[in-house]
Design brief:
This protein is of the alpha/beta class and 584 residues long. It is 37% helix and 14% strand. A hairpin with a 2-residue loop joins strand 12 and strand 13. Helix 5 runs parallel beside helix 8 and helix 7 packs parallel to helix 10.
């Protein structure tokens, strides 16, 4: 009898716990790569993104959500809720000098046991999956299976071909894919957006339907090389023929009409290095318009495959109990491979031929084509803001954020400031867990999502950012920022984002006390998280080139040595021959 009563009480106690677990929402975190603030259709973009737009209509879309301006640091903060320097990701490996790696904030490696959103949810009974780009720190050193993910299928790189293992920069000889921590190869017929969704669907089909899941779907779209099937590209024929100046103005008008920015917003000038669309030849205009067609088509393809996943969840009866978060890891990419001049251009084109890349107009965006949009179209993608990825401007930091899910009202545009570190506590809060922890820097956005509060940060509360010498600090509507050369002057500036989100009017001299106070706050932040000041002449783009040269020298020093000896021998005998001819 005692055993029977004990069993009865145990079952009775377990029933509420089981019901509570069953009621916990699933969480689907969707990350686009290098999508600008206005790239989603709901934000006024030109690409067709009906699935993302439907989520925005059902829930909330944020007008002031901030990531880091680099992918690895953004992803590190997205996974941990902590500042990137606090978890060893002060930058991406490609922009690090050898000296910087000696500091804890730039180790590029995570110690076992580092808490992530996956490990926290896993400990509470969630099944945890990731499919797509990881790209956090040194390749192969911080793979997701070590940090709370039950299943993982990831490319551990900043980017690569969307069809195979071909690298997109000379720093690497291949792109590394891993499944559950072990190296794997891509199947025949693979395309990134389709393949990572297929793998996520497989993981969910194998999951226990009685337990909630956390799924991190991380697209390669729309990181360079931008690639997509011709039918997606060709849907946008003629869409971008007006050129970047005209379309940038159009996006500003749409942003104002949608209520994303105030009517007082002005466009900052394009970078001095940008080309005038009207001065391009007709052939060049066609080429660059086509590159943007590829970009829009690739984003549409990603949305289509996201739609397949959402439809699958609906068919399983899971979608109504799933929180969906969609955002981008930073602003749009302005760089490219193969368009440099001089010796650098010669080297890039040689490397591309050796690696199998081409930039042919007819097949632009298809397999083996190195396609990118360049700084001019990146300025359109980031409009109405200034500049783009890698910089501490609004164009580099401010990205779209869409959140929809069970019991969340339809709120439309939310104007309260939010940061990447806020997403971990938000997901914990919605999962019914404590969003406050000593090692979590962000705050739950649930009060904004529920309509209880307009903002989670007060006007006197500041949040800082820093990567590769690009630094910013936000307090209320005020922002100070510093952007190193070549895109900035390395000096601090201050803007009132309530009236000037385009960052066209520096108010540092008009409000010197506030300016100094915010600089002091930034210094406190930098000291707290372990920011290492970069040298005055530091240039992240030049550092990447130095790292490429260093890598090539290490790998090819025997050949370079032989070539050098041959050259010296030729010069020696040439001088001797000339000397003999000049003797009387």
């Amino acid at each position: 009898m005692k055993f029977t009563l004990a069993a009865t009480f145990a079952i009775a106690a377990a029933i509420p716990a089981m019901a509570q677990e069953a009621a916990r929402p699933n969480i689907l975190l969707v990350l686009l790569d290098d999508a600008g603030f206005m790239d989603f259709g709901a934000y006024g973009g030109d690409a067709a993104t009906p699935n993302i737009d439907a989520l925005a209509e059902q829930g909330a879309m944020f007008s002031r959500f901030y990531m880091s301006p680099q992918c690895g640091p953004s992803r590190a903060m997205l996974m941990t809720g902590r500042d990137n320097h606090e978890v060893g990701l002060g930058s991406i490996p490609e922009t690090l000098s050898p000296d910087m790696r000696q500091y804890p904030g730039y180790s590029m490696r995570w110690e076992d046991g580092l808490p992530t959103i996956a490990s926290r949810l896993n400990e509470e009974g969630y099944q945890t999956f990731i499919s797509g780009k990881w790209g956090i720190g040194d390749i192969g050193q911080n793979l997701p299976h070590r940090f709370g993910f039950d299943r993982s299928f990831v490319i551990d790189a900043t980017g690569g071909s969307n069809y195979d293992h071909t690298p997109y920069v000379p720093l690497y000889n291949t792109t590394n894919w891993y499944e559950d921590g072990k190296p794997t190869t891509l199947p025949e017929g693979f395309y990134s957006s389709e393949g990572i969704v297929d793998r996520m669907i497989n993981y969910l089909d194998e999951a226990d339907p009685q337990k909630p899941f956390f799924s991190f779907l991380s697209f390669q779209a729309i990181h360079i090389p931008i690639q997509v099937a011709p039918e997606y590209r060709d849907r946008y024929a003629g869409r971008f023929d007006e050129g970047w100046e005209a379309m940038r103005k159009q996006r500003l008008e749409r942003a104002v009409d949608l209520g994303l920015v105030p009517e007082s917003t002005e466009l900052a000038p394009l970078p001095a290095s940008s080309r005038d669309w009207e001065n391009l030849s007709p052939a060049d205009q066609s080429y660059w318009a086509r590159s943007m067609q590829v970009n829009a088509g690739m984003l549409e393809a990603a949305d289509h495959h996201l739609g397949r996943l959402l439809a699958h969840l609906e068919a399983q009866g899971q979608l109504d109990n799933t929180l969906v978060i969609v955002t981008s890891d930073n602003g749009p990419e302005s760089s490219g491979i193969g368009n440099a001049s001089g010796a650098e251009g010669v080297f890039q084109r040689w490397w591309m031929r050796q690696t199998g890349w081409n930039q042919d107009f007819e097949t632009l965006g298809e397999r083996n084509t190195m396609t990118f949009i360049g700084e001019e179209w990146a300025s359109v993608s980031a409009a109405p803001f200034a500049l783009f990825k890698f910089t501490a401007t609004e164009g580099g930091l401010r990205v779209p954020l869409v959140i929809a899910g069970p019991d969340l009202p339809q709120t439309g545009i939310l104007d309260g400031r939010a940061h990447v570190t806020d997403l971990v506590p938000t997901m914990l809060d919605i999962a019914g867990l404590d969003p406050v922890a000593p090692d979590i820097r962000g705050r739950s956005l649930l009060p904004m999502l529920s309509g209880a509060r307009a903002a989670v940060y007060g006007d006197d509360e500041a949040v800082g950012f820093e990567v590769s010498g690009n630094a910013a600090l936000y307090r209320g509507n005020w922002k100070i920022s510093r952007i190193p050369t070549p895109l900035g002057d390395g000096k601090w500036h201050m803007y009132d984002l309530a009236t000037d989100p385009g960052e066209t009017t520096d108010l540092a001299s008009a409000r010197p006390e506030l300016f100094q106070d915010m600089q002091n706050e930034y210094l406190s932040y930098a000291d707290e998280v372990g920011v290492v000041p970069v040298p005055a002449d530091y240039n992240p783009f030049k550092q990447i080139k130095k790292n490429v040269v260093s890598k090539m020298a290490r790998e090819h020093w025997p050949g370079l040595l032989v070539a050098g000896l041959v050259l010296l021998t030729i010069l020696f005998f040439s001088f001797r021959w000339v000397g003999r001819r000049l003797r009387p």
